[in-house]
Predict the structure.
Amino acid sequence: MSDPNEERSLEPLPQSNLGNTVRASWNFSLDDVRANIARYDPHAKEVLVRAFLWCIDHKHPMAKPDFAKRVGVSDNLIYRLLTGKYRDAKTDTQLGPSDDLIASIEKFLELERERYLGGKTQFVMTPTARKIQTACKIARESQSPVFLVSPSHIGKTWALEHFTANNNHGRTIMSRMRAASGLGGMVRRIADDCGVSDKSNTAALIDRIKNALSPDTLLILDELHLLAHTYRAGSFHNCMEVIREIIDEVGCGAVLSFTILEDVQAASQKQLQQLWRRGVHKFKLPTIPTIADVTDILAHNGLPFPDKTMTVTVVSDRQRI
């Protein structure tokens, strides 16, 4: 009998499902997946988690049957591997994925990453973007919170998304907050981005998020200032305390991205006090694109920086600078 780990297909199946249907096809939560595959080879575990998180990401969703076809195995094999039910028929010993399958998944992830980045407006690594990525690297290496603060329309979110896509998707998780969502909304948002089912109460979800993360994870939380826009008294403080609790108990690094410096400085003496003290590194970004940023963008497009008789209009989102 042939080893199902070695199954291969010549023709990929076109992606046929989107949105919630895609997530439903991956009927697992990351905390359960980590528990199910705990005995696999460390590299195999990392690759499987990367694939799971990549495929359920709303920015580039892919249903499990489509993913299985792309990497040349059956949908059932992917299910059994992620649930820990792939076992030797004679001894009932748990089996892990073959080296060939892991190599195939890595090729899939690299190709999908290139396609995703290639389909977006081309990213230019400006000095400001480089500073943002430095903040991410410091947070991961120090396993501590790093604060990233700037006005809006400076490119924080784009640089953070670029870093996430290029730095081991299984160990870099980015979650963008929504306005007036409160504690429950924040927790559900983080859970969803961590690949955790939101079919639990808030307290249970917090525990499941902790189990889904690991000390080598970098958790990027963007637009955190939006959590302050709610009518519930003490809601922002509760959100910050839960973030602190998650970071402390998991022992992972985190980038906490805020807009509107004055609000953050005021909150650092109140709601943010515990987190602010833990964050040794605090990055304040420029208020507008710098001359060095504009120079790099122009050079990337084959244009020189204009002399004094010319002007350059920088359009950031919908604002002209």
Summary: The chain is about 50% helix and 10% strand. The domain at 127-284 is CATH 3.40.50.300 (Rossmann fold). The chain has two domains: 4-118, 127-284.
